[in-house]
Amino acid sequence: MVNRAIGVLAVRRGVSTTDAEALLRADAYARGSSSADAARRVLGVDAGSS
């Protein structure tokens, strides 16, 4: 799921997957959550339906 979210972010933002991963991790860090939680937010997935 995290890799899929990185790909989505890369396309949405027009950045490399390395930069997209950094964006995902930064969002998780800023919210005090995990990368998986940040990925769920990017993908619009409820936490209970992974």
How does the SSE layout of this entry go?
Blueprint: H1 2-13, H2 17-31, H3 35-43
Helix pairs in contact: 1-2, 1-3, 2-3
Shape: globular
Which structural class do you get from the secondary structure elements?
mainly alpha
Radius of gyration: 10 Å
Order of helices and strands: HHH
Amino- and carboxy-terminal Cα gap: 8 Å
Kindly estimate the percentage of residues that lie in beta strands according to DSSP: under 5%
Q: What composes the largest sheet?
A: none
Mean pLDDT across all residues, rounded? 93
Question: Which parts are unreliable, with pLDDT below 50 for 5 consecutive residues or more?
Answer: none
What's the structural domain tally? 1
Number of strands: 0
The percent of residues in helical segments reads: over 70%
Put simply, the count of helices is: 3
Structure explained in plain terms:
The protein is mostly helical and 50 residues long. The protein has one domain. Helices cover 72% and strands 0% of the residues. The chain contains 3 helices and no strands. Helix 1 crosses helix 2 (17-31), helix 1 (2-13) crosses helix 3 and helix 2 crosses helix 3. The longest helix has 15 residues, at 17-31. The protein is globular, with a radius of gyration of 10 Å. The N and C termini lie close together (8 Å). The mean pLDDT is 93.
Question: Short summary of the structure?
Answer:
With 50 residues, this protein is mainly α. The protein has helices at residues 2-13, 17-31, 35-43.
